[in-house]
Amino acid sequence: MSGGAGPLDDAGRFGDVRRFDTLDSTNAYLLREAGAGAAEGTVAVADYQTAGRGRLGRSWEAPPGTSLLLSILLRPALPAGELTLCTAAVALGAADACATVSGIAPGIKWPNDLVVGDRKLGGVLAESDPDARGGAPGCVTVVVGVGINVDWPGPEGTGATSLRQAAGRPVHREALLAALLEELIPRRASLASDEGRARLAAELRDRCVTIGTQVRVELASGSLVGRAIGLGASGQLLVDTGTAVRMVTAGDVVHTRAEPPA
Ligand code: BT5
Q: Are 1 and 38 in contact (CB under 8 A)?
């Protein structure tokens, strides 16, 4: 199958939306499908995940029917250093979809959290498969999953929230799904050009609540403490440690203290 035909039609719409009552993980399912050659634009939505995953081996919890749990298969022609923009494209689309259906416009905590104030509303997890077949030459296979708490404010003790709690009224999961897929159309297109990618990075900069805060970044090589001062051209986090500005492409960010407003 080529990336041009199939679920992603000429208008860039996501036409192959596969729905499940239960899956292990929508990301795991789509990675398996991608490995078997599924086309770009395939979407998996589950009511419940038995092994929902977060980053770095963590888990994503949601009782049946309470959350929007979906994954999207992308096969963009992107340099490896710009894969962060796939996470950004989906996080931005999800944030705008939340605003459309609930009036709550979440911020993005770099690199992958949707937050309302300092409460986590949702998370994005991008996983790539370097061996997957089915894309055009030069394309990478990336499955981007997103979980949004719609009707359940997250696990006890995490200080998370839900759209229902934040908006003070029920929010329709189907309307949220439709809005998200709509928001993804222009952002998927943006991944395909230099100008589009610059637009995504700029949009992320506007929505990123991490900029201007003191952060501790946990990296494989140790932790980095400093002030987040901005984003690089491909969405990397720029951290001023006091002695140097470091560019972070992956890591776990803890906001340690908000800067007073200027
Ligand atoms: C994330 O990981 O935030 C990415 C979550 C992505 C989930 C979606 S659901 C559809 C798709 N299929 C999958 O299998 N995954 C994706 P991370 O930053 O590592 O955050 C995980 C941490 O958030 C956990 O260790 C918990 O502390 C917390 N957590 C778990 N469930 C939560 C929830 N429903 N709401 C808020 N926080 C939660």
A: yes
* 169 alpha carbon, distance to own chain's centre: 24
d(CA 235, CA 243): 22
Stated pTM of the model: 0.92
CA of 248 relative to ligand 1 center, distance in Å: 21
- Cα gap 62→155, rounded to integer Å: 8
Protein residue whose Cα sits closest to atom 34 of ligand 1: 154
Ligand 1 touching residue 44 (CB < 6 A): no
Q: What is the full per-residue pLDDT of the chain (262 aa) written as tens digits?
A: 333 445 666 667 788 999 999 999 999 999 999 989 899 999 999 999 999 999 989 999 999 999 999 999 999 988 877 888 999 999 999 999 999 999 999 999 998 999 999 999 999 999 987 776 666 777 889 999 999 999 999 999 999 999 999 999 999 999 999 999 999 999 999 999 999 999 999 999 999 999 999 999 988 888 899 999 999 988 999 999 999 999 998 767 777 755 544 4
- DSSP-derived 3-state class of residue 88: helix
Q: What are the backbone angles phi and psi of residue 84, rounded to the nearest 5°?
A: -55, -30
How far, in Å, from the CA of 124 to the mean position of ligand 1? 8
Are 114 and 91 a contacting pair, CB within 8 Å?
yes
C-beta 159 within 6 A of ligand 1: no
**Separation of 233 CA from ligand 1 center, angstroms?**
27
Per the CB < 8 A criterion, the answer to whether 69 and 49 are in contact is yes
